[in-house]
Amino acid sequence: MNLFIVINLIFYILTVAGLYILFEKARKQKPDIHSKVRGWHALIPGYGWWVWLQIIGKPWWWLLFVPLPAFNIMVFGGMLLELTQCYRKKHEVKYVNEQIKGVYVKREVAPRSTVWEQLLIVIFPYVYVPYLAFKPEYKYIGPSGKMAKEKKSRWREWSDAIIFAGLVAILIRSFLFEAFTIPTSSMEKSLLIGDYLFVSKFHYGARIPMTPLAIPFAHQEFLGMKAYSDAISLPYYRLPALQKIKNNDVVVFNYPGNMFSPQDPEFSRPIDKKTNYIKRCVGIPGDSLKIVNGQVFINQKPLPLAKNAQHAYLVKTKNVPLSQPTDMRDINGQVIYEPDESLLEIGITECYPGDSSTYLIHTSDEKAAILKTWATVSSVRKLIQPTGLVDPQRPLFPGNNKLFPWNIDNFGPLLIPKKGTTIDMNEQTFALYGKTIELFEGVGKLTFDNNTVKLNGNPITKYTFKYDYYFMMGDNRCNSLDSRFWGFVPETHIVGKAWMIFFSLKNKEHAINKGFFSRVRWGRLFNFVAYKK
After folding, report:
1. Which helix (H) or strand (E) holds 485?
2. What would the pLDDT profile of 378-393 be if each residue is shown by its tens digit?
3. What are 19-51's pLDDT values in tens digits?
4. What is the separation of C-alpha 273 from the centre of its chain, rounded to a whole number of angstroms?
5. How many CB atoms lie within 10 A of CB 238?
6. What is the pLDDT of residues 110-158, one digit of tens each?
7. Interhelix angle for 71-86 vs 125-134, to 10°?
8. Exposed, middle or buried: residue 199 (CB in 10 Å: 0-12, 13-18, 19+)?
9. What is the spatial distance between Cα 21 and Cα 28, in angstroms, rounded to a whole number?
10. Helix 115-123 and helix 71-86, axial crossing angle in degrees, nearest 10
11. Distance CA 437, CA 297 (A)
12. Quick check: pTM over 0.85?
C-alpha cells in the first residue's frame, strides 16, 4: 500500500469519525426529531449520506447526484457547508418564541457560519468535521433554514459574497474544471480554432498547484506583468484519478519546451505556468511507437485515426483559383490566403497557394476524395515524406539525424518511458533519452564522453525512470508542432482531459459580411470531446 493511499485512508477515517460524533449530537440534542439516528450510521456507505441529509434538512434526491463525477463533489461540498450552519457554539445560540398554528413554540437560533468557517470545512473536511464533533461548545440546533440572519451592512454582505464566490471559483478551476480555447489548427478538424472547452482536471487526478503565489485566473501574465511569484514552489503531487490516460485521449498539458532551443522561455517558468497545449495522446508509458508512411503503430498494431484527422495534399487545378489573398498577414509578415467559398462549404479551411494551379491543402482523406471528383481539379496527391529523408533546418526529436534519420511520416521505433523502467545507458539511449532525463527527472547533468554516459560526472550503465511519459500528436498531422519535434510530455506536465465544447465561434474571415450569430457553430455546442472511429 503506497503512502498516498494511506494518507487518503487516514483522511477518510478522520471525517467519518467526526460524522459519528455529530450524528450522536443530533440524536441527543434533538431527540424529538432524530431519535432514530445513531452514530454508527455514518459508517455505512450511502445510508450514512442519507442520514446526513436528514440532519441538515436537505432532500433525499441529492443522493441521485452522488454517482455523477464532478456533481458528487459539489453535493459533498454543499453538505459540508450545511454542517457549519447546523452546529453552532452554545454562546451564540439564542431562544425565540415563534407562533405556529396559534401556539407559541420556543426554538433555537444562531448567526450563520462565517466565510472562513465555510472555507475551512470545504478545503479541510478531515480536520474541521472532527473539530466540530469533539468540541463540546458546538451543539446541534437544526437546519440552517431555522437560523437567525446576522445583521450585516450592505458592504459586508457584498464583500462576503464576492470573496466566497471567488474562492469557490478558484477551487473549481484548480481541482474540477478549467476553460480552454483552441488557438491553432493543430487539432483540425477534431477541434476547431474558436472552440471553447471545459478541461476536466479530476479525470486524471487534479494536480496540486505548484506555484501557489499567483494572481487568480491569470496564467503567465497580467496587465503586461508576470502573474505569479516563484518565491514558493511546491513539489509535484496529484489527487486520485478517475481513470488513466488512454491511447487517443485528447489531453491538455503544459508545453515542456523545445529541447533544441535552450533559450526557450518555457524552461524558465514553473511547470504549472508553462504554456497550455492540447493534443491527442497517441502513446502512453511503456508503449513502443512507430510511424510508417503517416500511419501510427503502437506495439506493432495500427492506431486508428481520429475521424477528422487531416493530412497534406498537393492539389492541381485547371487554372482555377482555390484561394484568394486577404488584407491580413501572419506573424512572419506573410499574406494570409482565404480558401474559396467552395472549399469552405465542405469544411476545408487550410489552402496554401504554390502557383496559379497548384495548392497545398490540409484536409481529411474523405474530403480529399471529394476534391478528386471536381471537374476543376486535375489531380490530388497525398504528400508523404519517404523513409530516410531528413530536414536539417527543422530538427525532429531526438535531434540526431545520424543515428535516427526520422521525419514526420516515418518515425521510430521509439519506446516511451514508463515509471520504474530501467534502460541500459549507451550512445543510442543517451541520444534518445538524455535530454528528457536531464530536463524532467531532476537528477542533475547527464553527459556522454569517451563512449561513457555520466550523471553529474559519475559513469552510469543503467537508469530507472522516476516518472511516466506520453507522446502527443495533433490530428492535423502535417501542420502540428508536437512530440515528433520536442519529445515526451512528463506526467508532471499533465493538466487534464479535454471534456466538453461549451461554445464555438468561427473566425471573422470565415463569416464575411455576416452577423455574430452566423459565426456561432451551433452544432458543436455542448458536445463531448471524444474519439470517434
Report:
1. helix 483-486
2. 999 999 999 988 888 7
3. 999 999 999 988 888 888 999 999 998 898 899
4. 13
5. 15
6. 877 877 888 788 778 888 999 999 999 998 988 854 554 455 567 766 7
7. 30
8. buried
9. 11
10. 130
11. 25
12. no
pLDDT in tens, 509-518: 554 456 667 7
Q: 269: buried, middle or exposed (CB in 10 Å: 19+, 13-18, 0-12)?
A: buried
Which 3 state secondary structure label does DSSP give 89?
strand
How far is Cα 382 from Cα 372, in angstroms, rounded to an integer? 12
Task: Enumerate the H helices of 124-232 as residue ranges.
Answer: 125-134, 154-175
pLDDT digits (tens, 9 = 90+) for 250-307: 999 999 998 888 888 898 899 999 999 999 999 999 999 999 999 999 999 999 888 7
Q: Is the pLDDT of residue 532 over 50?
A: no
Residues in the chain: 533
Helix, strand, coil percentages, rounded to 5, for the chain? 30, 25, 40
* 112 and 92 Cβ atoms separated by less than 8 Å: no
**Cell numbers at 436, concatenated:** 528528457
Cell numbers that stand for 336 in this block: 494570409
Helix (H, G, I), strand (E, B) or coil at 334: coil
User: Which residue stretches of 259-375 are H helix?
Assistant: 341-345, 365-372
Work out the number of other CB atoms within 10 angstroms of the CB of residue 358: 14
Give which of 32, 145, 133, 126 is closest to 87, Cα–Cα. Answer: 133
- Check the CA dihedral 82-87-88-94 and report its sign: positive
Q: Helices (H), strands (E): how many in the chain?
A: 12, 29
- For residue 137, report the phi and psi dihedrals to the nearest 5 degrees: -75, -10
Q: Using alpha carbons only, give the angle 127, 492, 180 rounded to the nearest 5 degrees.
A: 90
Q: Tens digit of pLDDT for each residue in 69-96? A: 556 777 888 888 888 888 988 888 777 7
Would you call 398 helix, strand, or coil by DSSP? coil
